[in-house]
Every structure is written in C-alpha cells, then in structure tokens.
Amino acid sequence: MKKVWLVVLPLLVFIGGVGFLYQGLFSDPRELDSQATGKTVPAFSLPDLMNPETIYTPGSLKGEVTILNVWGVWCITCAVELPYLTQLRESEGIRFVGLYFDQDIDPDFGGKVLAQVRQEAKDMLQQFGNPYQFNIYDTYRDLSLDLGVTGAPEHFLIDAQGVVRLHHIGDINERVWRNKIEPVYSRLQQEQKP
Hints:
With 194 residues, this protein is of the alpha/beta class. It has helices at 2-25, 76-92, 114-128, 142-147, 174-192; strands spanning 46-47, 55-56, 66-71, 96-101, 132-138, 154-158, 164-169. It has a single domain (30-192), classed as Glutaredoxin, CATH 3.40.30.10. The chain is elongated, with a radius of gyration of 21 Å.
C-alpha cells in the first residue's frame, strides 16, 4: 500500500501543478478585480493636487456617475490615454476625477519636491489634455492601497451613491470604452434618472 502512495502522490502533485499553470496560461492579468468592487469608496480626506486647501472626501465622488482615474506624470500610458479621456469628457460629458498616484515624492523614486510634481502634472495636462473635473492628490498612496491599485493607469467606475461598480486596469481607448466601460456607465446613468 505504501508503494502505491509513492507513485500516486507525485502524480497528483504533478496533475495539480499542470492544472494551475494551464489556468494561468489563459488568464488576463488586466482582469484582476479590485477588492473595492461592489463596495463604497473607502474613507479618505485628501487635498486637491493643485490647491491643497481644498479637501476631498468620499462625498466628493457622490451625486453623479464618476470614473476615478489613477494616473501620474511618470506613467507613459497615462499620457497616451489623456487625449481620448478628454474627448470623452468634451463630447459625451463623462465625469472624470483624477487620483494622482505619486511615486516621485518617495525618496526611493527620486525625491522631488511637491512644487515640481505640480508643475510636471500641469505641463502634462496642458500638452495631452485635461479630462479631470478635479485631481485628488493621494499624498501617501493610502487611498490607492485601500482601492487595491497595482499601478497606473487604473480606473474605477463609481455610481452616484459612491459604490465602485467596475474596475479596469490599463488605458481606456475606444475599444475598451465601447466594449467594457460604456455599457456599465450607460446603465448606471439610466439608474440615476428619476
């Protein structure tokens, strides 16, 4: 009986390993779901990127359907998507709020001063387009961590009650907008109407 287990046990481990690797082969890493999906936006009290006297809270994201866009000047893909996001805001009235995910203030990434980060953000938005109604400055990345952000760009579609309804990792381009985000956005807009 012992000899049977010496053969069966390694075979079971091998089959389990192959199954695990096979599943990973066909998974899409951008389809990771956020721990925040289906929950209200976590508590926060953070300043505006350009005007630190203005403080935002989860209430700032309520009242209308909003796309919270995690971005930074260091993010090349963010620069690529800004013109399209700006077009969506101008042509379809989409409400975008920026969550500025900063790594430049961290001494491990470069140690820039806040004034320099603000100027770089302003320059980038002037060059590529500014889709944002306002920009929340995630000073210590606490909100990003609470949302489960893994990088930038990431997007959180938030309903009028402040509940995260969809999470998208990567840029929003025309294909992503039409196939993934717009159907949910339109449904949430319809639900919001009296």
